[in-house]
From TrEMBL:
InterPro entries in the cross-refs: Metallo-B-lactamas, RibonucZ/Hydroxyglut_hydro
Pfam families membership: Lactamase_B_2 (PF12706)
Regions annotated as coiled coil: none
Name of this protein: Metallo-beta-lactamase domain-containing protein
Cellular component GO terms, alphabetical: cytoplasm
Domain of life assignment: Bacteria
Organism in which the protein naturally occurs: Undibacterium terreum
Domain Metallo-beta-lactamase: 133-331
Amino acid sequence: MDMSQASMRSQHRRFSLRKMLVGGLLLLAVGFSAALAQAWDALGESAQGARLARMQASPQWHDGRFHNPQPLANDDLWKIIMGAFHASDDAAPKQVVPVMQGDHLRFATPPVSGLRATWLGHATTLVEIGGHAVLTDPIWSERASPVSWAGPKRWYAPPVALEDLPPVDAVLISHDHYDHLDKATIVTIAAMKAWNTKFIVPLGVGARLAGWGIAEERIVELDWWESSKLPGVEIVAVPARHTSGRYLVDRDKTLWAGFAIIAGDQRVYYSGDTGMTQQFSEIGQRLGPFDLSLMQIGEYDEAWPDWHLNPEQAIQAQQMVKGKLTLPVHHGLLNLAYHSWTEPMDRALAAAEQSNVRIAIPRPGESLEPANVPQSAIVTHWWPQLPAPSAANLTQSLTREAQ
């Protein structure tokens, strides 16, 4: 082989390598751009114009964002980082979660008592009341995330397909965190031809939905203590102690809330995400007693003690809102904290029994009518018995969380 041929082959190899490198970089750029576009779209738009002016008129708005009456003593970054190194070995299930799949024909028959609740995992619950179907914080996506390929992944498929639900009259969104406001689910619900769903959200969250193409006439934005009505049903936004935001620089630019659902003499309370607050008592005085409380019990930690109730606080809050029966939510689907996945249920059950509070902990996908739940503390003990924190560690943890 002469020198010219060797040189040509060398140049050809270098050219091929450059093509591979450039091609690889282009593929990475396209992939990154697609991921960025997906994430950007999921963020949702921010409020402007009349929507922003209404937010700024809220008693909860000052200094350019929404505020809790009680500041959050949270975000100890060091504790958050260190907590990850001491997370429970059972933070996620190691066995199949016993989900009640299917059985959608139950929805063809209205609840005999007029009130039925079906917990579908995490904070998603279908409430049938006053002849209407109300859905709280629906998430049917595989992940609670702005992208489909990363973020907390659900432990089991949705117990009931969206199309197998009865026509949903109202979706209640408590705030805009990804485990409560899931773009794909909202867009799918809005497109259901047989449904005419209202989306009832706290101030500012409507801008997210409008940016995803939801018609403005289907969006109802509420401040605390404001209400919206369906025929025979009133839905009231009530205070919660939490925070909001879809990305790093928009914290607390939208409001957060719980909800009361009232139909005649039947009443349901949904806590949304909340820390301990004296406003539970005001909710109970103004709108209680409640036949059923959908009470947040999971995803707590001493590093964020005011963002979420721990189970003992949830039972205390149940008493403050004058609830008759607790159905724990915000647990059992996603790994968002460091405790074992069964700990919230074990602690909530023990606290309820100690305080003589009625509690029902259904399997994901299981329906119950509060009027038919026996006085016993639990429907079915469906989760495994896992090692609990030692008494000393638990006492110390509860003391820190309560501070």
